[in-house]
């Protein structure tokens, strides 16, 4: 009964955030009632159901997942589920330095930390927050031996001038820094003029900074570059100019327990209802039928150009 999209599950456990990133969540939250959030027990029930269908990787995201007081319970609950081999967290890093040790003990394996700028002022202007605690979180995670990926949404022309700063940042840090194309995901605040095609940065990295393409390290959705003398690596994820729908192996669940088959899809199915009201076999069959019925690929270029509308808020469904 395995479906390729069920290999990897992303669960957003909260819709609100403690930063106000202009490319993502300038509002702070959707205003959902906390009482509607799926509980730690519900989350584990959902993951158990998915693990029986073949899911092996789980990522916890948000909103800002570390704002959930029961985050340790959620992580340890999922870590104990048979079949789950990889458990990762996406966070803005503001609170992570205080929590990373206990989360590792709870069973967390990897972290992705967002860092849209390494310049203190620019970081503040994009996110509304302070960069210091985010850098502490990155360094604390590295110190504990937890693999770290750094997510850099390429937001505006300034990113070109910042490339040197990012290279300096990873010179002595063994991390994978990935530039991500700015996606048209926040209906009311998307700004077309802030979009930067990442092939431009990729060319500059090779021509001006002497980086090489690393074939053996190539990941499924990102091209990776390295340079002798630089500890970290740089990857490029291009969801807009090089859509990777054909290799997409994930579904997303929001903090109300609703599953979305694709980031750009507007249909959802309520998983908690499904799991609670149907037998295991019927729930699985209905989920697979739902995925097959809703498998069309989005035209992200058209959405970016404003030719079609999208109402997705990444902070609701998780990045
Ligand atoms: N609060 C956490 C954080 O900041 O990483 C987790 C939630 S955030 C929605 C997850 C990811 O979404 C971030 O790593 C960010 O890179 C990505 N993201 C948010 N808005 C985006 C956009 N407009 N285009 C591309 N990626 C975006």
> Which structural class fits the helix and strand makeup?
alpha/beta
Assign the CATH topology: TIM Barrel
Indicate the CATH class: Alpha Beta
Number of separate structural domains = 1
**Unreliable spans:** none
Structure, described:
This protein has a single domain (4-317), classed as TIM Barrel, CATH 3.20.20.70. The chain is an alpha/beta fold and 319 residues long. It has a 12-stranded mixed sheet. It has 11 helices and 12 strands.
Task: Summarize this structure briefly.
This protein is an alpha/beta fold and 319 residues long.
Give short descriptive properties of this protein.
about 35% helix, about 325 residues, alpha/beta, globular, about 15% strand, TIM Barrel, single chain, binds S-adenosylmethionine, twelve-stranded mixed beta sheet
Layout of SSEs?
Elements: E1 8-12, H1 40-52, E2 57-61, H2 71-79, E3 86-91, H3 96-106, E4 110-114, H4 120-127, H5 131-143, E5 148-154, H6 158-170, E6 176-181, H7 198-207, E7 212-213, E8 222-226, E9 233-237, E10 250-253, E11 258-260, E12 269-270, H8 271-277, H9 280-293, H10 300-304, H11 314-317
Parallel strand pairs: 1-2, 1-10, 2-3, 3-4, 4-5, 5-6, 6-9
Antiparallel strand pairs: 7-8, 8-9, 10-11, 11-12
């Amino acid at each position: 009964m395995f479906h390729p999209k069920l290999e990897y599950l992303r669960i957003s456990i909260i819709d609100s955030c403690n930063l106000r990133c202009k490319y993502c969540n300038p509002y702070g939250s959707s205003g959902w009632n906390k009482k509607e959030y799926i509980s730690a027990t519900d989350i584990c029930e959902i993951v158990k159901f998915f693990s029986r269908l073949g899911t092996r990787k789980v990522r916890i995201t948000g909103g800002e997942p570390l704002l959930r007081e029961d985050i340790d319970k959620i992580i340890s609950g999922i870590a104990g589920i048979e079949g789950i081999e990889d458990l990762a967290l996406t966070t803005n890093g503001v609170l992570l330095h205080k929590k990373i040790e206990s989360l590792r003990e709870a069973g967390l394996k990897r972290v992705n930390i967002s860092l849209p700028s390494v310049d203190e002022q620019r970081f503040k202007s994009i996110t509304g927050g302070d960069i210091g605690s985010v850098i502490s979180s990155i360094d604390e995670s590295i110190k504990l031996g937890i693999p770290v990926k750094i997510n850099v949404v390429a937001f505006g022309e300034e990113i070109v001038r910042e490339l040197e700063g990012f290279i300096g940042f990873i010179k002595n840090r063994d991390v994978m820094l990935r530039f991500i194309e700015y996606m048209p995901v926040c209906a009311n605040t998307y700004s077309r003029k802030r979009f930067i095609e990442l092939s431009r940065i990729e060319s500059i990295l090779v021509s001006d900074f002497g980086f090489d393409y690393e074939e053996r390290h190539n990941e499924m959705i990102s091209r990776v570059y390295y340079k002798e003398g630089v500890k970290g690596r740089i990857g490029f994820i291009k969801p807009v100019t090089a859509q990777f729908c054909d290799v997409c192996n994930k579904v997303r669940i929001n903090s109300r327990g609703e599953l979305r088959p694709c980031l750009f899809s507007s249909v959802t199915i309520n998983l908690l209802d499904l799991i609670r009201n149907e037998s295991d076999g019927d729930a699985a069959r209905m989920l697979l039928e739902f995925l097959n019925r809703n498998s069309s690929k989005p035209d992200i270029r058209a959405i970016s150009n404003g030719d079609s509308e999208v109402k997705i808020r990444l902070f609701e469904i998780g990045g």
